Amino acid sequence: MIRSELIQNLAKANPELRADDVERIVDVFFDEIAQRLASGGRVELRGFGAFSTRERDPRVGRNPRTGEAVEVPGKRVPFFKPGKEMRARLNVEG
C-alpha cells in the first residue's frame, strides 16, 4: 500500500471527513513518528508494533564499481518491531 491508497481508504471509511483533512491527519501522524525517532525516542502502537532507532557501527565497505575499500561512518537507522497481535495476523494458517 502506498500513501495515496492509505488516504483513499481512510477517506472511504470516514465519509464525514474531507479528503484534504484525512491527508493532513496522515501527514501529522507520520511527521510525529519521524520527529520522535529523530529525537532518539520510541513510538509504540499497541497491537501493531514499535518504531525505534538502532545504532550502526562504522565499518569498511566496498565501492561496487571499483572494489575499493570505503569507510562507512556509524549512523542511526530506523527499526520496526511488530507487536504480538501483528505477528499473529501474519502467521494465520489459511
Order of helices and strands: HHEEEEEH
Task: Report the CATH C-level class of the largest domain.
Answer: Few Secondary Structures
Our measurement of the CA-to-CA distance between the termini, rounded to an integer number of angstroms, reads: 22 Å
| CATH arch. level architecture of the largest domain | Irregular
CATH superfamily of the largest domain: IHF-like DNA-binding proteins
Coarse structural class:
alpha+beta
- Main pleated sheet: 3 strands, antiparallel
Mean of all residue-level pLDDT scores: 95
Summarize the structure.
The chain has about 90 residues and is of the alpha+beta class.
Structure description:
- A hairpin with a 3-residue loop joins strand 1 and strand 2.
- Helix 1 packs across helix 2 (19-38).
- It contains three helices and five strands.
- The strands form two sheets. A three-stranded antiparallel beta sheet has the order 1-2-5.
- The chain folds into two domains: 1-39; 42-94, Irregular (HU Protein, Chain A), CATH 4.10.520.10.
- The model has no long low-confidence stretch (mean pLDDT 95).
- The protein has 94 residues and is α+β, with helices and mostly antiparallel strands.
